[in-house]
Amino acid sequence: MNTKIKFNRWLSAGGLIFFLLLGWEASAQWVNQPYLFPSPSQIFIKMIDLHHVLFFVHLPATLSVMLIGLFCSMILGVALALCMNKFKTLEQAIYPILIVSQTIPIIALAPVFVLWFGYSIWSKVLVTILITFFPITVNTFDGLKSTSKEQLEWFKTAGASKRAILTKLYIPSALPSFFSGMKVAITLSVIGAAIGEWLGANAGLGYFSRRMMTQFDGAGVFAPIVWLSILGLIGFLLITLLEYYLLKWRHIK
């Protein structure tokens, strides 16, 4: 029954996407201004024409920014969440700063990073870190805080070491929230990489999209954007599969 519900859900989503693309195609053909409003078929043809330069040159550059930024965010976010959970004073000092940091428009800071680091990969990585750091930190911290007090008392009564309490209680309790943060962060990493490349880069899907815009190539602008969406979708599915594998107990009924 559950499998049938999931199939119907995917079928409904696929049908909606199909009709949206069909409407887009018809509207683009009616407008007939491909440099402003390209159709899905024109974008697909452009992706085929540019597959070599997009897939083998610009996609690896964007993927590198995403993975490095996401890895740094994961390490820093989990470490900070553990420290805030351990030290109440640190939580009271850092948590408001985390909230305030999300009110600053990253696109306004990106040019500053380019000024500091030039067109190197690190200016784009820093933008990605700033965007992805928050959901990982906050979700992991919330997961740690949701640890059962009764189980914690039982561990202490049983004489468990601090390391055992961390690895056997806190981390398993925080894993579902951590993966929720990672699923948000991996989609945001696409945005962070694209913003960084749009404002200053020599390679990458965001850079290529901006270059096509200066040439008034509407399909060329959309082609790398489609690849960015594909990267985000693949990343989300990989995190979901990893979550399912590591948290199988949540799916046992």
UniProtKB/TrEMBL annotation:
It holds the Pfam family BPD_transp_1. GO terms for cellular component: plasma membrane. The keyword DNA damage does not apply. CDD domains: TM_PBP2. Keywords: Cell membrane, Membrane, Transmembrane, Transmembrane helix, Transport. The chain crosses the membrane at residues 52-82, 94-119, 125-144, 184-205, 225-247. It is found in: Cell membrane. GO terms for biological process: transmembrane transport. Residues 59-243 form the ABC transmembrane type-1 domain. It is a multi-pass membrane protein. InterPro entries: MetI-like, MetI-like_sf. Belongs to the binding-protein-dependent transport system permease family. This is ABC transporter permease. It comes from Alkalihalobacillus alcalophilus ATCC 27647 = CGMCC 1.3604. The lineage of its organism: Bacteria, Bacillati, Bacillota, Bacilli, Bacillales.
